[in-house]
Amino acid sequence: MDDTIYDEASNVVAVKGAVVVKGPDAVDVRLTPGAAEETSERLLEAAMMARGQRYFDDQSS
Fold first, then answer.
1. Pick from 4, 41, 42, 56: CA 20 to 30 A from residue 10's CA?
2. How many Å from the N-terminal Cα to the C-terminal Cα in the chain?
3. Closest to 10 (Cα-Cα) out of 25, 1, 21, 20
4. What single-letter DSSP state applies at residue 10?
5. Greater pLDDT, 61 or 22
6. What does pTM read for this prediction?
7. pLDDT (tens digit, 9 = 90+) per residue, 21-37?
8. From CA 21, how far away is CA 31, in angstroms rounded?
C-alpha cells in the first residue's frame, strides 16, 4: 500500500448514468449511482474520524 497522502480533491461528474471519479495518482473510477452514494457516506465517515484523530494528536503535543 502506498502511504502517499494527497491534499487535492478528486473531480466527480455524472456521465451517461454513471458517476466518474478522477483524482490524483491516476485515479479513474466509474460507479453506479448506488455505489457512489455508499462510497460518499464511507468517505464522509472516514474524513470525520481522520479530523478527530488529527485534532487529538495536535492536542497531545
1. 56
2. 28
3. 21
4. P
5. 22
6. 0.82
7. 999 999 999 999 999 99
8. 8
